């Protein structure tokens, strides 16, 4: 069958590939053979997600130098949960947390909350079919993830569309009973699931009740029962089975059994991932069972854990990771989300939701508001001027603080890393004693290594968003901006302030474009961040800058105006006085 719509992603190959390290080879029109030729025994096997996404960049025809790019894409086929703790809402949030695009086909609408499910309204199978065709025929879907499928008819149209529009993987979360115990799907769905959908699936993730239902209602009360269930469900033709033991009787730990039918030879090399990355080797019996011991989170906020585990697995598969890696990452994500949300209070009932986007969350109390007053007298060092006046960088910094500098930046373009670290450590001692923040120009590595108070970045340096991820919420990040667009971008990226210049011509920074007072005004009016002016500013013209009366112009950065002077402290006091007078004139 022609693989209409199959697209090698991230350099992966179709069935023809001979590469032994290809995480999968397409063996039949709608399934991916998830063989694991290389064992995920170290992070080096996992390309970082941003690299994974970057690799999907493809040059747009006729647009040299620019390229369109696409995100790994999961399509969730599930029900809507009005409380947003589970269902397509959870799927979309989980994929967002994984950095993956998520489209949705709604199979049912439920009225539910933290107390339970009050009403279910199934969507007609023809409407489900229309939604499936709309997405699968137009948008490049990598992985389909299924949740609530309320009828055999819905399963039928789903299988038809998966066959017509092949994807890289199918993840089935056999939603029949919600964690609150409410029945979500009719019994007729069971046959369709067992005989039509599971043979197309790459993994199925039943909880104990669902595993029991899939096996005709047998009772499952022990880990051995779970092993038996995993192996039995595997015989329906699904490639991998993850039986979730969150509600295993008399068990303090949530144990999941992952079964992939792997031969014993490879299996012995597998490690078992314990939650929070503790690794243990376990004895393997005649087939491969991997137990994921996971500390039971003493929390009410477990609604949606099943959906989320499955959709996070789908997201990781869409990024190109192996099945085992995807399962491990999903386990870790859910574990971390539950930990983060254990005291979250949403709703009055016993089944609360958890916070899927906890990683993006910078709780206001965590991220200190940047005090813009720090920008008033901004000292930026220059090794050439230090040499000219025969002073060390620490002497220059000490003198600038004595002269009233409110913030200091080490701008050492020629310094080798070793001498830069040494200078930074010396200056940090001085700055910490005086309570003056010390920022590092360009070099995030130096700032991180020395625990400096932040960095100042240029437009060609690391993007502020990435710097924020590396430095965390408490460090100060400033960015050079010459235009309104740049100012708006860095605000979105989470910067704390903007350096705008050169306001006047300067010889300190080579080939610098002068923006003038008007350019400074433009950036200040566009910026939602506080701004510090820089470039050719000194005691002779500082007041002309501050008298622009721009509300978010909070100070001036000086290099030669402060450091190309015989006495830095004296010059600093002069500049500080002029700045204060200017600000008072506008208060
Ligand atoms: C406060 C402040 N503003 C601008 C700069 C310019 O930094 P520099 O690294 O010299 O140039 P860009 O790389 O930012 O263009 C600064 N150092 N401080
Ligand atoms: C770093 C920088 N960014 C824009 S102009 C400039 C140099 C500022 O030096 P000076 O204050 O001596 O003009
Ligand atoms: Mg720079």
UniProtKB/TrEMBL annotation:
InterPro entries: Aldolase_TIM (IPR013785), HMP/HMP-P_kinase_dom (IPR004399), PM/HMP-P_kinase-1 (IPR013749), Ribokinase-like (IPR029056), ThiamineP_synth_sf (IPR036206), ThiamineP_synth_TenI (IPR022998), TMP_synthase (IPR034291). Residues 81-350 form the Pyridoxamine kinase/Phosphomethylpyrimidine kinase domain. It catalyses: 2-[(2R,5Z)-2-carboxy-4-methylthiazol-5(2H)-ylidene]ethyl phosphate + 4-amino-2-methyl-5-(diphosphooxymethyl)pyrimidine + 2 H(+) = thiamine phosphate + CO2 + diphosphate; 2-(2-carboxy-4-methylthiazol-5-yl)ethyl phosphate + 4-amino-2-methyl-5-(diphosphooxymethyl)pyrimidine + 2 H(+) = thiamine phosphate + CO2 + diphosphate; 4-methyl-5-(2-phosphooxyethyl)-thiazole + 4-amino-2-methyl-5-(diphosphooxymethyl)pyrimidine + H(+) = thiamine phosphate + diphosphate. HAMAP family: TMP_synthase. GO terms for biological process: thiamine biosynthetic process; thiamine diphosphate biosynthetic process. It comes from Vanilla planifolia (Vanilla). One of its GO terms (molecular function) is thiamine-phosphate diphosphorylase activity. The keyword Metal-binding applies. Pathway: Cofactor biosynthesis; thiamine diphosphate biosynthesis; thiamine phosphate from 4-amino-2-methyl-5-diphosphomethylpyrimidine and 4-methyl-5-(2-phosphoethyl)-thiazole: step 1/1. This is thiamine phosphate synthase. Signal peptide: none annotated. Keywords: ATP-binding, Kinase, Magnesium, Metal-binding, Multifunctional enzyme, Nucleotide-binding, Thiamine biosynthesis, Transferase. SUPFAM superfamilies: Ribokinase-like, Thiamin phosphate synthase. One of its GO terms (cellular component) is chloroplast. Residues 377-561 form the Thiamine phosphate synthase/TenI domain. Coiled coil: none annotated. The keyword Transferase applies. Its EC number is 2.5.1.3. Its cofactor is Mg(2+).
């Amino acid at each position: 069958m022609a693989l209409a719509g199959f697209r090698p992603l991230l350099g992966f190959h179709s069935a023809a590939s001979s590469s032994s390290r290809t995480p999968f080879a397409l063996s039949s029109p709608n399934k991916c053979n998830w063989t694991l030729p290389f064992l995920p025994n170290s992070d080096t096997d996992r390309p970082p997600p941003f690299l994974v996404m970057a690799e999907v960049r493809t040059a747009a025809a006729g647009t040299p130098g620019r390229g369109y790019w696409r995100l790994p894409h999961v399509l969730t086929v599930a029900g809507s949960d009005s409380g947003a703790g589970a269902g397509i809402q959870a799927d979309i949030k989980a994929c967002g947390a994984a950095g993956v695009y998520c489209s949705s086909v709604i199979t049912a609408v439920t009225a539910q909350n933290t107390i339970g499910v009050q009403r279910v309204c199934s969507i007609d199978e023809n409407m489900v079919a229309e939604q499936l065709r709309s997405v699968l025929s137009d948008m490049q879907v990598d992985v389909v993830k299924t949740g609530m499928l309320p009828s055999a008819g819905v399963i039928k149209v789903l299988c038809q569309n998966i066959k017509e529009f092949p994807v890289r993987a199918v993840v089935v979360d056999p939603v029949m009973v919600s964690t609150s115990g409410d029945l979500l799907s009719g019994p007729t769905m069971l046959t369709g699931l067992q005989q039509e959908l599971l043979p197309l699936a790459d993994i199925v993730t039943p909880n104990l009740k669902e595993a029991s239902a899939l096996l005709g209602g047998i009772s499952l009360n022990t880990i051995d029962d779970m092993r038996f269930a995993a192996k039995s469900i595997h015989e329906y033709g699904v490639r991998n089975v993850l039986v979730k033991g969150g509600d295993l009787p008399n068990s303090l730990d949530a144990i999941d059994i992952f079964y992939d039918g792997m031969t014993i030879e490879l299996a012995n090399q597998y490690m078992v991932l314990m939650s929070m990355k503790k690794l243990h080797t376990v004895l393997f019996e005649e087939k491969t069972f991997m137990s994921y011991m996971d500390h039971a989170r003493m929390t009410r906020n477990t609604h949606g854990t099943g959906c989320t585990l499955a959709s996070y697995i789908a997201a990781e598969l869409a990024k190109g990771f192996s099945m085992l890696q995807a399962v491990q990452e999903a386990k870790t994500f859910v574990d971390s989300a539950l930990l983060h949300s254990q005291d979250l209070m949403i709703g009055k009932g016993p089944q609360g939701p958890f916070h899927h986007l906890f990683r993006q969350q910078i709780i206001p109390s965590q991220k200190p508001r940047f005090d813009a007053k720090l920008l008033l007298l901004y000292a930026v060092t220059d090794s050439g001027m230090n040499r000219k006046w025969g002073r060390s960088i620490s002497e220059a910094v000490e003198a600038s603080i004595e002269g009233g500098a409110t913030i200091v930046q080490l701008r050492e373009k020629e310094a080798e890393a070793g001498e830069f670290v040494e200078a930074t450590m010396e200056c940090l001692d001085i700055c910490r004693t005086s309570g003056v923040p010390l920022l590092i120009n360009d070099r995030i590595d130096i700032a991180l290594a020395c625990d400096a108070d932040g960095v100042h970045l240029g437009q060609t340096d690391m993007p502020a968003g990435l710097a924020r991820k590396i430095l965390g919420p408490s460090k100060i990040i400033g960015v050079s901006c010459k235009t309104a667009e740049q100012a708006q971008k860095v605000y979105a990226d989470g910067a704390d302030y903007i350096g705008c210049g050169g306001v006047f011509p300067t010889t300190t920074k080579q080939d610098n474009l002068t923006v003038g007072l008007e350019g400074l005004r433009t950036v200040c009016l566009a910026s939602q961040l506080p701004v510090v002016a820089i470039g050719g500013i000194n005691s002779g013209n500082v007041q002309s800058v501050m008298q622009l009366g721009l509300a978010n112009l909070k100070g001036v950065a000086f290099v030669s105006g402060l450091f190309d002077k015989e006495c830095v402290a004296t010059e600093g006091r002069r500049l500080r006085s002029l700045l204060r007078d200017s600000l008072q004139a506008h208060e």
